[in-house]
Amino acid sequence: MPAEPLIDCDFPGGNIIVEKIDGDTAFVRQDLRDTEGDWFYWHFRVRGAAGRTIRFRFTGTDVFGAAGPAVSTDASRTWRWLGRDSFADKAFAFAFPPGAADVRFCFAIPYVESNLRQFLARIGHSASTRSDTPIVRDAPILPDADAGANLVFAHSVLCRSRKGRDVELLRFGCIGRPPHHRVLLACRHHCCEMMAGYELEGVIEAVLADDADGDWFRRTVEFLAVPFMDKDGVEDGDQGKNRRPYDHNRDYDGDVAASIYPETAALRRLIAEWSQGRLRMAFDLHCPWIRGPMNEDIFFVGTPDQRAWEAAGRFSTILERERHGPLPFDPAKNLPFGKDWNTGAPPGQKSFGRWAGELPGVAFGTTIELPYAVAGGVPVTPESARAFGKDLAKAMRTFIESECE
């Protein structure tokens, strides 16, 4: 009888509880840890199963997205979707190729610190051939005489997480001298919402591109982005959504001293100094629920501020017109405040979108939901998510030129 396969989550972003292995069937469930209620994120590794077919049965609630599980047969270097028909009855089976020593399965395609480091290395290498695009570590947050007019990308640390990890801070665009406008981007307030990382990469690529839009951004707009607002949750493999006592995206109420997470407190302090009345837009990049109606479309989430919601609507119209990537976008899918689940946070809690929309000079602050796996019938992959990020950037330029200058 073959030895039991080794199933574990001892790596960045890992999450699984193995209840038992019975022959060629593994009984598993997601680890909810400090989640209030239920959520669906999981990510595990299998070794010692080469040449076998193993069935993975989840013993808890529904945990499969619109494209089924994502799988990597090369230790997380590349990923693919198994497909909508790959699961049934809360289970899926996989035939392990001969010689497959390290196979990973995940609810969606992961994005952790190592992915960000690979991206930074890639854009640093491409920039090294262009004299106008230096990549700088630990550049000053606010422009000064020593920053250099040609500086267009810098990465530093926003703060330390509760567990002592660096929380990365990215600045790009017109950062070597005072910009005309500023844009704020945040990701992973809910740490399981990983596809937002690839979307952010697309925005950055557009701003650094050797084309007319990139040149305009680097002369005109400073971007500030936090790729991992819940850095510990990303690396530990938490759900993040509905974390007790409340999650990172409910930590913007009251004064800064009231924030319970280091990341949100540090961002609030920084933006008060950094925005200087030039902040025009603030986007919180999210992924919605598991699958189904509304969760398989890209949409913006409204706040009670009607003026800001109307501005977000105009931006949405521009985005629909400017879109060139494969992921569809229809402004009619946007979710206004007061509809469906969008009814606001409990007393004493406030979202990033509402907080950012109240900052001086901002046209709107909003959440944008990019589905985990399928958007308008089109697969969401790292490539298509980056393409949508580039579409977002193009729409930002048009909006700023039409409404902010």
Please describe the topology of this protein.
Blueprint: E1 6-8, E2 17-22, E3 25-29, E4 43-47, E5 53-58, E6 70-72, E7 80-81, E8 87-88, E9 91-95, E10 103-106, H1 113-127, E11 135-137, E12 153-160, E13 166-173, E14 181-187, H2 195-208, H3 212-220, E15 221-226, H4 231-236, H5 262-274, E16 279-286, E17 299-301, H6 306-322, H7 352-357, E18 364-369, E19 374-375, E20 378-379, H8 382-403
Parallel strand pairs: 3-5, 11-12, 14-15, 14-16, 16-18
Antiparallel strand pairs: 1-4, 2-3, 4-10, 5-9, 6-7, 6-10, 8-9, 12-13, 13-15, 17-18, 19-20
Helix pairs in contact: 1-2, 2-8, 6-8
Short description:
The chain is of the alpha+beta class and 405 residues long. Helices cover 25% and strands 23% of the residues.
Say what the CATH topology of the largest domain is.
Aminopeptidase
Topology, number of strands: 20
CATH superfamily of the largest domain: Zn peptidases
**Major β-sheet, in short?**
8 strands, mixed
Using the CA coordinates, give the radius of gyration: 21 Å
Number of domains: 2
What is the averaged pLDDT score? Answer: 93
Specify the CATH class of the largest domain: Alpha Beta
Flag low-confidence runs.
127-147
How far apart the termini lie comes to 72 Å
Portion in strands: 15-25%
- The ordered string of helix (H) and strand (E) elements is EEEEEEEEEEHEEEEHHEHHEEHHEEEH
Shape: globular
